[in-house]
Amino acid sequence: MKAIISCLQNQSRFCLPNIASDRYISLLTQNSFSMPNIPDFETLFSQVQLFISTCNGEHIRYATDTFAGLCHQLTNALVERKQPLRGVVVLKQAIDKMQMNTNQLTSVHADLCQLCLLAKCFKPALPFLEVDMMDICKENGAYDAKHFLCYYYYGGMIYTGLKNFERALYFYEQAITTPAMAVSHIMLEAYKKYILVSLILHGKVQQLPKYTSQIVGRFIKPLSNAYHELAQVYTTNNPAELRSLVNKHSETFTRDNNTGLVKQCLSSLYKKNIQRLTKTFLTLSLQDMASRVQLSGPQEAEKYVLHMIEDGEIYASINQKDGMVCFHDNPEKYNNPAMLHKIDQEMLKCIQLDEKLKSMDQEITVNPQFVQKVRGGSSSTGVAFSYFGLCVYFW
Q: What SUPFAM superfamilies is this protein classified in (predicted)?
């Protein structure tokens, strides 16, 4: 180990862009964080940090599997030491070194999301979550589906923590609908959170796409009975029944670390019932609202109304003198310059998406495996073609 540290201390010399870096990746990977007991973790960490920040990105792309392995070991070491925040900047630099473009997914993306989650520091991961992934960085000609699933699962958890439920639902859906031949614990946990976030956002469980693997229906759904019961009771719009079911399955929700989301489901049901009142009444007292929605009293009803007004979920005003709530129509007329600019930007995104879909369709059309499958040159089941770095199965 002393020899390794001595070698790394001369790193400023061998990490210049014109010097090959693949040899040193192997040295670091084989002899650093994989050791049972690291004699001098701080020195090793600082040297690895320096290497990642100064190494030649072009050389790294010829040894992405080894480089990614080093990042995985670094992540595990920081997680074991409960120091996740220290690795966030390092892994951001590592991803930039590996990527051919910003739309390329690497296995290190999952590591970055994991560290951001553990550190409760979500914003550094957002630039890597807000882009549409169009390609996968092949590491030694392959890509472990575990990292793909973890990226979308951790990403969904980050968006859930930020209360961006629409984006979180999309990420959980990507994890659930990944082509699979066996049950994945990651997919199972993503499915449970998918149900909860779907209830919070839409008031019902959104139907999964038709291309979802049969594994979900056969195995994952039966393992999520408590969550399906929760969704079924949620549709009754009865907070008392929902609270009773939450207490019944509290041990399950606690074990799955979903207690916080379940509580948000209960809160969202109160909000949903308040929104239903806006379609019936123009004015309503806080006391009457609390009674109809099954809240503890006018103070709690006022708290909910104020939060909903702040979040733009309802349009209303409260008269503090008589405790009356007046509901209003949406003041947005959709004719101001800012709204027109937003519509223009959304149309541009649609055009770009259409062009990308045409390009992807063309790539699939000329794929030899796909052509062979269409011509009937293979059996009725099995792998038709590999796209986006994952195997796509036809049944």
A: Winged helix' DNA-binding domain (SSF46785)
Specify the pTM.
Answer: 0.85
* Predicted confidence (pLDDT) per residue in 201-230, tens digit: 999 999 999 999 988 989 999 999 999 999
* H helix intervals, 203-297: 214-215, 225-234, 239-248, 250-255, 259-278, 286-293
Q: Give the separation between CA 308 and CA 306, rounded to whole angstroms.
A: 5
> Degrees (nearest 5) of the Cα angle 238, 242, 243?
115
Tell me how many helices (H) and strands (E) the chain has: 21, 7
Q: What is the pLDDT of residues 115-158, one digit of tens each?
A: 999 999 999 999 999 998 988 988 877 788 899 999 999 999 99
108's tokens:
């290190």
Question: Residue 95 burial by CB count (10 A; 0-12/13-18/19+): exposed, middle or buried?
Answer: buried
Paired with 283 in beta bridges are 326
DSSP lists the bridge partners of residue 327 as 316
Length of the chain: 395
